[in-house]
Amino acid sequence: MPAPVAPVAALRAVTVEVADPEILLAHADPLAPLVALRRGDGIVGLGERLRLTFSGPDRLRAAAADWRAIAQAASVDDAVHRPGSGLVALGSFAFADDSAEHSVLVVPEVIVGRHAGVSWVTSITPADAPTGVTGTALLPDPRPFGARPRATLAAASLSREQFTAVVGRAVAAIREGRVEKVVIARDATASIPPDADRRALLRDLADRYPDCVTFAVDGLLGASPETLISVHAGEGSARVLAGSTARGASSADDAAAAARLATSPKDLDEHAFAVQSVLDALRPHARAVMASELPFTLKLPNLWHLATDVEVQLGAGASALDVVAALHPTAAVAGSPTDAALALIAELEPFDRGRYAGPVGWIDQDGDGEWVIALRCARIDGDGTLTAYAGAGIVADSDPESELAETRMKFRPIADSLR
Ligand SMILES: C=C(O[C@H]1C=CC=C(C(=O)O)[C@@H]1O)C(=O)O
């Protein structure tokens, strides 16, 4: 049953085209960045016009319903009509139904964005506020980037030995038939100065992982390669990732590593579960769903992944958050079957994943938006405590030491940005 919709003040959003603001990140708040960028384009939010928090099993459905009500009540004057222009909320949701961490949707006061050479500034005010300044006049001057904080990640809730033991128990549970696949994660912490410029880490991530979505919402930041769902005018696309291997040191080794991954029965199995979970979740919302039969190998600076792109024609009225609510958690971050995998994760992982492996992204007034899975990420608390997360899909043939090595590679985006 959909959660009751909280009454909301009507908002007005005015978007005007502006000259290229150049480095979008330079406009973000150094301590509380709100960011969704890919290849330098995307959106950066400033201030908080509205913050909605959610928790519990209904958190995504409640957010979808609240956002629909907010969008319907809003007046939007958007002369730009690009992905991310107009009224937009950025959001980040907890992985688990019983997480102690809140899920959030934040509507900024000002958004600066760029898409394919067109730049804009959106101002979001209460609908009854006097019409004020618009455009570049709203933008604070770009601020010089502070120094990148340096720190070393240290294993937190599970030592490396404990992690391999947990993976061993996961393999045993799979062989006993409790699940077919389960994703086991570990956390690692570091401490950075509380006033460190978060944008310096984001800039480093965006430079090194340009094809990923570099995101920052409410203290969670990272560079994710996995698109949960991107929705535009009724068309959706997803990129399913599962199955990974290290990059080779030479180009011959690298090509051999990719070829081995593409033919590894263990990784192909792990991948197939993830694709199936996405297709099953999309079908009820779709008029048509298309996915290639075989995965391709996706090259990232730290890893090769098996990847499948999925295209979907959505049914009338399905918003990006409706689809996110249906998709989360996919077998790329939970396992298969979902409920049994979630129960096993709760039993084996001695920590709250928080918003790691949850959906993070943005939604606009039409319900369009882009949501990725919060991977290769860390949460930075106000006191400078940084907690990073990395997990690996476990199937019957998984080797605990290889899975430990895989998590080490998945920590690299965050670990290297702290070097
Ligand atoms: C759970 C993570 O990655 C998922 C996404 C891609 C490949 C994965 C794998 O090969 O295990 C995982 O399913 C993570 O990065 O923490």
TrEMBL record:
Entry keyword annotation includes Isomerase: yes
Q: Does the keyword Iron-sulfur apply?
A: no
Q: InterPro entries this protein is in?
A: ADC_synthase (IPR005801), Chorismate_C (IPR015890), IsoChor_synthase (IPR004561)
Please state every residue range assigned to the domain named Chorismate-utilising enzyme C-terminal.
160-410
Keywords of this entry: Isomerase
State the reactions this protein catalyses.
chorismate = isochorismate
State the family named in the UniProt similarity comment for this chain: Belongs to the isochorismate synthase family.
UniProt name for this protein = isochorismate synthase
Q: Which organism is it from?
A: Microcella frigidaquae
